[in-house]
Amino acid sequence: MKTVSKITQDNTEQWLYYSNKMDYSYDIKVSLPKSSPPIDGYPVIYILDGNSYFQFAQDVVRLQSKNEPKTLVNEAIVVGIGHQEKDKEASKRRFYDFTAPAEEYVYPDRLKGFDIGNHGGAQSFLDFIELELKPEIEGRYTINKEKQALFGHSLSGLFTLWTLFTKQNAFQTYLALSPSIWWNDHEILTYMEQFLNQLKEYEKRHLFVAVGECERFMVDDAIQVVNKLKEDQQAHVECEFYCAPEENHASVVPTVMSRVIRFASKY
Fold it and tell me: Among residues 215, 247, 258, 265, which one is catalytic?
């Protein structure tokens, strides 16, 4: 693994990071606090689909951490993980990176006839984060390994849930907006059941799930997941759910980002 084309501007660093695990270079952006790090290091928030959502998260942290007692937002390092492609090609890459491997795939009618590329790269993508990117971030900056959060929206929100259910100790806090629970005939529900049935020998994790009121079936899907986790007293997952009034799949992220970051700042 290696980094190239690093630039620094306004306490934001950016570089292309080649992943051996994925045989692909990701666009990495890192927003750094201007103050000296605390003794135990900065919290870190990893933002998936960084090309779309890094700026939102960066602005919330930078502006609101200036008045932490009122905003309840702490200083943190924000790491955006983005794709280089645009539009359709980026969409294909997302379907690969953020979906779990499966023997077969079931597609909803709205996707039939569309070329959405390959699927099933989630395990390799998680290996990239855990074994390549995290050590790079930990080597460059003073961070708190016990205060790390993962954010994703839509397909990357699905990946966020999948990570919680398959490797819950990877992060302490999980932030899933409008997660694509529908993918592959709701296969994430099977992962959730396996997660709930395994031995509970891990520490408590924290999950924030939000959807827009106008997202129809995605609202019901999200409520189903949150309610199931809340019902299981042994799940060791503290959940918060928010349905954003009058918001849709595209508008929910900028509308809810402050609430997301406040939730992450609590842990």
Answer: 215
